[in-house]
């Protein structure tokens, strides 16, 4: 019980906001903010310009400190530009983020197309893009076919702190003396150049100030998105009168909503959208980063317009984005779109696509801190069957271990974990266990003693193993930035090493910001030292990324490369999509958290990570039953679907809230299972084509301004499903925006066509949330749900064909074994297309390189919006066999149902309706 009280006091402390910094408590932010918009002091040295096949290089000089910086500009295949700025001759190398780009990007040659005194223009080979470089002040403007899209340093906020020897090492020179005299001790402290205090914490900066930053102007844009993770609106807000958006991975228990402080994960990708164009800025820096945003109206920018033209200028929006990082170099990718889907492809080309999840992980997950012991696990598992609720995975939190020693079992509570897993396996279900990055300091714990001997822990500034307090008490932290540590860690998941682990056990990485109780802002001190002597400040936002990478690798390797891993991580960075899923951490069981989860998940999806979710029910506290029901209904239509609750929360299994609520939750979860063929297909698209699974409306309707700030509804997949979760207590109606005046929408459950367009009040009951299918789409579903995904393999399919104004529809289905890499290595998959046109529904192959045998059939087809009662329906397969199809037609809803079809999923066929 002692343990418990320590634990809750740690948590209580964490809620206290004074544990976390406001922007003005961050020294590099204060320093950068001393630089105000105006004429930049950087100038291009025009003599230094050199062109190669790869890039264009030149030097810039700071008028006052005379330090030379090297600028490199690259054009990368696929409408991407990269700008790098580093010191020409730094005292020591500066940190450049490794392991995030999936490969060295393929560059295209730029040439100088124009040169005049004071500036030059770089053109891409096809001349679609031009980069105008101005020498004094240094500025870069990026144009696409004559339209200025972005400019860099146009507000003169380029900022680069060059490395300097510590004051004590400096030879006395006139200049230094001067510097010393004008910098009183107080001022020094305020600037935090060589050390920085926060409360009782002292950060010693062995390498001194190293901050970098610059500004970008986004011309014509007043809608910007991205840079997760914050508990904020979809549309990024102006920061002029408050805190900047902070990208610094932190464990904030009981975090507040509508806050720009960083929580858990960071992806430094910002998207800007206007009706005819989407652009992106990917700021590749893993140190603490702050982003200031300011949108205003300015006179239209006409590149080199004559004075007469200037007089006719109109006001256009412009968004300034200022990026400030504590360290590293400036390495920024300008993604030129021009569509949102192009941006997603461009970002994926750099950082990879979403890993294809094993099918089970798209089912429902039941988690709690904690499922106590084997009996508890079995009882909860049996509860799902008793209540006829499907689920795939039960989770074990930290209490399942022997004293928070990960990779071990509490022998009292889990006497035979292997048998427990065999039991679950027989029921075609899985187990996920937690594996945190902190390692208990305990010489008799093999993991600790091995890591200690091998020198695998992060060091403190004095070179000793860094020790912090976490769940096990005194703990050391594995240095996942070291490839050797990652390999060793991955090996810990081998079945023979991880005792009593079996192939139905998968992994959850928590606390990997990393969370360090009693540490500054509950994380690791920035002057801790990693592999190759890099300070923690350089790699902070990458720590969790690396742990998940190593864990996923371990799960792949334990199966000799055959099986797909499932790893959930709390901390993430750009590229985490390659390794699994993320969730939004410790939310609270309140309506406002349900509501904010939608823009939060949409933002994470935009940043490349499709597989994400929020704890259903809210982690902290106890949801009233209505909130819990609404959360299940929302979660069922989101990518990662897991119920989870805190140790101090009451038990929350779906059947504990009365028969009526059980029934509604059961229906929501069953809807999810029936929809899995569609969801899995969407994940295949995310995996192969970088299309986000969950999409804000503007992505799907880029020309419709009314969609740009919508965050209470979204599209699931390619223009097909519109989902509007209910996030208000006792709601009797919700206001749904049906985007696109030319579209037809159908009620997804009642199949009837929606009469009105635009913004419509829709009555709701507790039974379900509004979901609509867009006309023009075919959605594949299963005809019924099973006990888990594995029980559903042979269940037949049903197609929902929703006709558009032309009476046409298309859709896709992807099928494979749902668990292995055979789809990749042996091309064992089916990728099918369904097309409805001229009263013929045909099934054809999208990708003939794939083959997968299944006996599964399409049993039923429902055609929505079918004009009139047919007289005759036939189905014919490729081999010429024709048969008559039984059908029913409902004149009221114009719905045609075709039954008993038994058409193979893996073969071509046609259904003709006359
Ligand atoms: O702060 O492992 O976000 O999901 O149940 C508590 C215990 C530590 C935080 C995670 C939460 C998990 C909990 N962990």
TrEMBL record:
Region called Disordered, residue ranges: 161-187
Molecular function GO terms recorded: alpha-1,4-glucosidase activity; carbohydrate binding
Domain named Glycoside hydrolase family 31 N-terminal: residues: 71-292
Composition-biased stretches (Polar residues): 173-182
Domain of life: Eukaryota
Ranges of residues in domain Glycosyl hydrolase family 31 C-terminal: 691-779
Statement: the UniProt record of this protein carries the keyword Oxidoreductase: no
Domain Glycoside hydrolase family 31 TIM barrel: 355-682
Alphabetical list of SUPFAM superfamilies matching this protein: (Trans)glycosidases, Galactose mutarotase-like, Glycosyl hydrolase domain
Keyword flag Hydrolase: yes
GO BP annotations, alphabetical order: carbohydrate metabolic process; N-glycan processing
Keyword terms of this UniProt record: Glycosidase, Hydrolase
PANTHER family, A to Z: ALPHA-GLUCOSIDASE (PTHR22762), NEUTRAL ALPHA-GLUCOSIDASE C (PTHR22762:SF60)
Family in the record: Belongs to the glycosyl hydrolase 31 family.
The protein's name: GANC glucosidase
Lineage: Eukaryota, Metazoa, Chordata, Craniata, Vertebrata
């Amino acid at each position: 019980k002692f343990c418990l009280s320590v634990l809750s006091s740690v948590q209580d402390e964490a809620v206290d906001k004074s544990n976390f910094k406001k922007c003005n408590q961050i020294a590099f932010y204060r320093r950068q903010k001393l630089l105000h918009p105006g004429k930049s002091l950087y100038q291009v040295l025009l003599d230094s310009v050199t062109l190669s096949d790869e890039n264009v290089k030149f030097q810039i000089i700071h008028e006052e400190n005379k330090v030379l910086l090297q600028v490199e500009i690259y054009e990368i295949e696929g409408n991407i530009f990269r700008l790098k700025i580093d010191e020409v001759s730094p005292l020591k190398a500066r940190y450049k983020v490794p392991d995030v780009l999936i490969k060295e990007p393929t560059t295209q040659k730029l040439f100088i197309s124009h040169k005049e005194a004071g500036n030059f223009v770089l053109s891409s080979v096809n001349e679609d893009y031009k980069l105008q470089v101005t020498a004094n002040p240094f500025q870069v403007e990026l144009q696409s076919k004559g339209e200025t899209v972005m400019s860099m340093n146009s507000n003169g906020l380029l900022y680069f702190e060059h490395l300097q020897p510590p004051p004590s090492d400096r030879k006395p020179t006139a200049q230094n003396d001067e510097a010393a005299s004008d910098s009183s001790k107080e001022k020094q402290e305020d600037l935090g150049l060589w050390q920085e205090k926060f409360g009782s914490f002292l950060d010693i900066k062995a390498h001194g100030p190293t901050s970098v930053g610059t500004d970008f102007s986004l011309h014509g844009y007043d809608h910007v998105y991205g840079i997760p993770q914050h508990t904020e609106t979809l549309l990024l807000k102006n920061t002029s009168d408050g805190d900047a958006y902070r990208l610094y991975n932190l464990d904030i228990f009981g975090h507040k909503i509508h806050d720009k402080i960083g929580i858990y994960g960071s992806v430094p990708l910002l998207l800007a959208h206007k009706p005819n164009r989407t652009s992106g800025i990917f700021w590749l820096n893993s140190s603490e980063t702050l982003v200031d945003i300011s949108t205003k109206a300015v006179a239209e920018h006409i590149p080199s317009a004559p004075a007469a033209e200037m007089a006719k200028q109109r006001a256009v929006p412009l968004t300034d984005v200022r990026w400030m990082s504590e360290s590293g170099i400036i390495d920024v990718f300008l993604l030129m779109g021009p569509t949102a889907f192009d941006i997603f492809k461009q970002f994926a080309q750099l950082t990879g696509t979403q890993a294809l999840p094993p099918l089970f992980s798209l089912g429902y997950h039941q988690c709690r801190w904690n499922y106590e012991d084997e009996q508890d696990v079995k009882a909860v598992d049996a509860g799902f069957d008793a209540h006829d609720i499907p689920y795939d995975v039960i989770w074990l939190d930290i209490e399942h271990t022997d004293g928070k020693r990960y990779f071990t079992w509490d022998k009292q509570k889990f006497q035979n974990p292997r048998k427990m897993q065999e039991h679950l396996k027989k029921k075609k279900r899985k187990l996920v266990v937690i594996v945190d990055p902190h390692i208990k300091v305990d010489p008799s714990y093999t993991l600790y003693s091995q890591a200690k001997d091998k020198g695998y822990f992060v060091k403190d500034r004095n070179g000793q193993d860094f020790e912090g307090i976490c769940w096990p008490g005194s703990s050391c932290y594995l240095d996942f930035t070291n490839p050797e540590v990652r390999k060793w860690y991955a090996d810990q998941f081998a079945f023979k090493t991880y005792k009593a682990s079996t192939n139905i056990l998968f992994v959850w990485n928590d606390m990997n910001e990393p969370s360090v109780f009693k540490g500054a802002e509950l994380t690791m001190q920035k002057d801790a030292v990693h592999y190759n002597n890099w300070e923690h400040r350089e790699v902070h936002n990458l720590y969790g990324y690396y742990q998940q990478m190593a864990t996923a690798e371990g799960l792949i390797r334990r199966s000799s490369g055959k099986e797909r891993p499932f790893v959930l991580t709390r901390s993430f960075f750009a590229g985490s999509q390659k390794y699994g899923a993320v969730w939004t951490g410790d939310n609270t069981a309140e309506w406002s958290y349900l509501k904010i989860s939608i823009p939060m998940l949409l933002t994470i999806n935009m940043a490349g990570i499709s597989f994400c979710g929020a704890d259903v029910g809210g982690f902290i506290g106890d949801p009233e039953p209505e909130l819990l029901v609404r959360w299940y209904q929302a979660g069922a239509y989101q990518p990662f679907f897991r119920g989870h609750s805190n140790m101090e929360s009451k038990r929350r299994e779906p059947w504990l809230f009365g028969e009526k609520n059980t029934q509604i939750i059961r229906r929501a979860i069953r809807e999810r299972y029936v929809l899995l063929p569609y969801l899995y297909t969407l994940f295949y698209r995310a995996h192969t084509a970088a299309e986000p699974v969950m999409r804000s409306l503007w992505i799907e309707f880029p020309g419709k301004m009314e969609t740009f700030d919508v965050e209470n509804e979204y599209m699931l997949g390619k223009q097909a499903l519109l989902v509007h979760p209910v996030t208000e207590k006792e709601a009797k109606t919700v206001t749904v925006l049906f985007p696109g005046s030319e579209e037809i929408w159908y009620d997804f459950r009642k199949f009837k066509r929606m009469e009105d367009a635009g913004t419509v009040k829709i009555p709701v009951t507790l039974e379900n949330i509004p979901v609509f299918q867009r006309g023009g789409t075919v959605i594949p579903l299963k005809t019924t749900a099973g006990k888990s995904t594995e029980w559903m393999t042979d269940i037949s399919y049903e197609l929902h064909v929703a006709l558009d104004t032309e009476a046409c529809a298309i859709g896709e289905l992807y099928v494979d074994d749902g668990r292995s890499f055979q789809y990749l290595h042996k091309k064992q998959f089916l990728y099918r297309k369904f097309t409805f046109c001229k009263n013929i529904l045909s099934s054809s192959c999208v990708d003939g390189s794939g083959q997968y045998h299944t006996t599964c059939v399409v049993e039923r087809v429902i055609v929505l919006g079918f004009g009139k009662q047919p007289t005759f329906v036939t189905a014919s397969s490729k081999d010429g066999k024709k048969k008559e199809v039984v059908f029913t037609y409902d004149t009221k809803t114009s719905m045609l149902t075709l039954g008993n079809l038994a058409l193979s999923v893996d073969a071509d066929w046609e259904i003709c309706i006359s």
